[in-house]
Amino acid sequence: MNVPAPAGSVAVIGGSISGCAAAVAAHKAGHRVTVFERSAGDLAERGFGVCIPEPLMRQSLDAGYLSPDLAHYPITYRVWLAREAGGDHRLLWRQHARMISLNWGLLWKTLRDNVPADAYRPGHTVVEVTGDDTGADLRLSDGTSHRFDLVVGADGYKSIVRTAIAPEAAPDYAGYVTWRGVVDLPRLTGCDTAVALLDDAAVTVGFDGGHSIMYRIPDGRGGHRVNWLVYTRPPADIDVGMSMSYTSQTLLDRLSTAFETIVDRVLPTEFARIVHQTPAADRAFQPIFDMKLERSARHPFVLAGDAATITRPHTASGATKALQDGLCLERRLTAGPDLPTALAGYDEERNAAGNALVDLGRRLGRDQVEATPDWLSMDAARMEEWTNATVAGHDLYIYARQPR
């Protein structure tokens, strides 16, 4: 018989997708939850796209993490293309890849709605965490201190909670970036063939030194947007440094100008138009980092989402990992019999999964950015062989074996 861990107080630092999933988990396991989110704004305004596997969508709905009315878009295939000399595209492979695309902001909102209303505290920044065998203390930027039985670090790449578990851990820069954006479908002109391909597929365009991926997501108003990403190395004459985010407007302007030119050279004409017709306010640059961890939990701390292992976005695992972390945390807290045992079980399960994803992301980055094939020489059979060699037998996330 499972004996739940004694109901206690749980602080979740970070109120994004992983933080809300962890808060739902702790609440469903019978604990009193408080979420500290440093942003005072509405995170639902963040409208980029994410994908999760179909089975996880069903599992999250059944478990009460997601709401049945959450807008989503089914994707059946991953279509691989390459640009021909004249700017048209060549179809390389139509790969079965069943997944669900979501709008980040809408996903966050449905998770947020399932967190107790009085538990979520926006505009609260945690600046220090300390702990011992009896619990953890948080100090906030307003000078107040708070005591909790358990602290969940869901505070992203620069996690303050991670320093309490793995102070030696440091993210590694992969040497390339992604330029991403999202554009309302009705805004697009001169892209009819490209848009038609996006009807039931995520479209990947391979090019020398990188690739782009595009897919539809809900816009929250009954329509759709096109979410796109372009992965490649920044030009050698632009020093992007080692920052995990770009804040210099001069740097962002130089990158934007350079990538506009890159897109015209490497993407088929209609797909380049999708990028060019995306408003500047709906574009962003993200340097690619990753990081393994020796552990993701040590009483009274546990890590979730990107506060734990950091995985390259090629794995399409950000939202998936956040939801699976939450489901695992609920299961372990419910099984008990105490918090140290529950966290040890979580660590054994989720840290191994996270490190495996880091390995997969590195292989995907190698083969899709760092050492790309001669795309125009590939056909469906060679693409499938190449993909299988990259995945190397792993059955993870959207790279799980797909029904035909």
Automatic annotation (TrEMBL):
Q: Give me the segments passing through the membrane.
A: none
Cite a single Pfam family from the UniProt record.
FAD_binding_3
What are the residue boundaries of the FAD-binding domain, all occurrences included?
Answer: 9-359
Superkingdom in the source lineage = Bacteria
Q: State one molecular function term (GO).
A: FAD binding
The UniProt entry, under InterPro entries, shows: DHP_3-monooxygenase, FAD-bd, FAD/NAD-bd_sf
Instruction: Fetch the PANTHER family from UniProt.
Output: MONOOXYGENASE-LIKE, OS06G0597600 PROTEIN
The protein here is known as 2-polyprenyl-6-methoxyphenol hydroxylase-like FAD-dependent oxidoreductase
